[in-house]
């Protein structure tokens, strides 16, 4: 409609300008003509020059053209406002449809998963939902921005304009709240199963590596004493780090388990909130049971692993004590060989003078101090 109106307006304006040009040409022709042409004045019984009559007609046409252009501008603005509102309503309807599709995506998989693989699938589906909603977010922002502009431009129906903006914004905010709730459920599920698997793998490795009866001192007996000390010190350091990893991993599992249960089965007691598309009671009970079983399994593995850790820690500690003793003994033997035997052999004779005896006595005191 607006396009047709603009074409008609352009045609009328072009015809008016063409008439002005023709009129000016005719006036110029009559003024330079030898023939005097007179016509009756429409407003009086008298006659007037034809060129004056044409001039009056052009002035009247100009006045009418100005009035027409003002009317046309008013009409154009009304049509633009009407078209803008129709377009805004159509875009709002489309955005609401996209939001409804997003709600269906959130509700399509209300079970966050019973395993790490299923939790990963739920996480992938949620990421797909986020990607799909990016364009919808842009649509919502565009609708709100255009609505604000129309109101600033004094749209004749600001209530209808803001109704579109408020409707799409309200539905979008509701969807975002549901999406946040779904994200909490999905991430809690993924974090729990992923951490449980990592901790379980760590504990299984510990149980496999910790063998009762292994003697680290015997395992590295072929190495030099200095190298054996370095290896045992490194083993003790890694051993202490493993215990810290076990404790932190176990704590993380229970933390994620608690968060998972709060999001999957919200109650006033555990501080949870009612989430969108949460599993039904049967699925909740199954999930709770599975989470508890996994947590108890890891608790048992942790207890057994820490018992073995304590045994191995004792063995490593004893090995280190033995190596420290061996190191000290070796140093003592080397000192006896290098210092003690030399001192005894060099002082085997009896001093021949008082000064020599005094010197021998001072050397003896120094040797005694060093031997201690």
Protein architecture, described:
Keywords: Guanine-nucleotide releasing factor. InterPro entries: RhoGEF_Guanine_NuclExch_SF (IPR051336), Spectrin/alpha-actinin (IPR018159), Spectrin_repeat (IPR002017). This is Triple functional domain -like isoform X7. One of its GO terms (molecular function) is guanyl-nucleotide exchange factor activity. Helices cover about 80% and strands about 0% of the residues. The chain is mostly helical and about 375 residues long. It has 2 domains: about 1-175, Up-down Bundle (Methane Monooxygenase Hydroxylase, Chain G, domain 1); about 210-265 and about 275-340. A two-stranded antiparallel ribbon has the order 1-2. A hairpin with a 6-residue loop joins β1 (about 40) and β2 (about 45-50).
Looking at the structure, what is the overall shape?
A: elongated
Oligomer: single chain
**Any idea of the CATH topology of the largest domain?**
Methane Monooxygenase Hydroxylase, Chain G, domain 1
- Main beta sheet: 2 strands, antiparallel
Q: Order of strands side by side in the largest beta sheet?
A: 1-2
Tell me the β content: under 5%
Low-confidence stretches: 266-277
The appropriate CATH architecture of the largest domain is Up-down Bundle
Name of the CATH class of the largest domain: Mainly Alpha
- Distance between the amino and carboxyl termini: 112 Å
List the helices and strands in order: HEEHHHHHHH
- Look at the helices and sheets and give the structural class: mainly alpha
Helix share of residues? over 70%
Count of DSSP helices? 8
The number of distinct structural domains comes to: 2
Instruction: Give a count of the beta strands, DSSP E runs of length 2 or more.
Output: 2
Organism: Paramuricea clavata
Keywords: Guanine-nucleotide releasing factor
GO molecular function: guanyl-nucleotide exchange factor activity
GO cellular component, one term: extrinsic component of membrane
């Amino acid at each position: 409609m607006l396009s047709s109106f603009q074409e008609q307006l352009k045609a009328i304006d072009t015809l008016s300008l063409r008439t002005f040009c023709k009129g000016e040409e005719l006036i110029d022709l009559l003024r330079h003509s030898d023939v005097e042409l007179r016509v009756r004045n429409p407003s009086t019984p008298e006659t007037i020059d034809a060129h004056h009559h044409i001039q009056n007609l052009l002035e009247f046409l100009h006045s009418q053209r100005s009035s027409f252009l003002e009317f046309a501008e008013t009409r154009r603005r009304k049509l633009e406002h009407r078209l803008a509102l129709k377009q805004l309503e159509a875009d709002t309807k489309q955005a609401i449809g996209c939001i409804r599709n997003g709600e269906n995506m959130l509700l399509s998989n209300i079970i966050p998963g019973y395993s790490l693989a299923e939790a990963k699938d739920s996480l992938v589906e949620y990421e797909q939902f986020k990607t799909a909603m990016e364009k919808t977010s842009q649509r919502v922002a565009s609708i709100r921005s255009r609505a604000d502009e129309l109101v600033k431009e004094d749209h004749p129906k600001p209530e209808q304009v803001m109704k579109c903006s408020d409707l799409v914004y309200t539905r979008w905010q509701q969807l975002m709240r549901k999406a946040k709730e779904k994200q909490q459920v999905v991430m809690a599920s993924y974090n729990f199963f992923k951490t449980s698997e990592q901790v379980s793998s760590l504990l299984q490795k510990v149980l496999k590596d910790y063998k009762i009866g292994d003697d680290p001192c015997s395992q590295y007996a072929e190495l030099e004493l200095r190298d054996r000390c370095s290896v045992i010190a490194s083993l003790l350091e890694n051993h202490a780090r493993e215990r810290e990893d076990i404790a932190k991993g176990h704590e993380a599992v229970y933390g994620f388990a608690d968060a998972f249960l709060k999001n999957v089965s919200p109650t006033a007691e555990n501080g949870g909130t009612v989430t969108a598309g949460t599993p039904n009671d049967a699925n909740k009970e199954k999930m709770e049971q599975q989470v508890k079983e996994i947590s108890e399994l890891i608790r048992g593995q942790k207890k057994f692993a820490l018992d073995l850790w304590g045994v191995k820690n004792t063995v490593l500690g004893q090995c280190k004590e033995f190596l420290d003793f061996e190191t000290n003994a070796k140093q003592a033997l080397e000192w006896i060989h290098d210092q003690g035997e030399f001192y005894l052999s060099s002082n085997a004779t009896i001093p021949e003078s008082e000064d020599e005896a005094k010197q021998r006595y001072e050397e003896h005191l120094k040797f005694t101090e060093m031997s201690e």
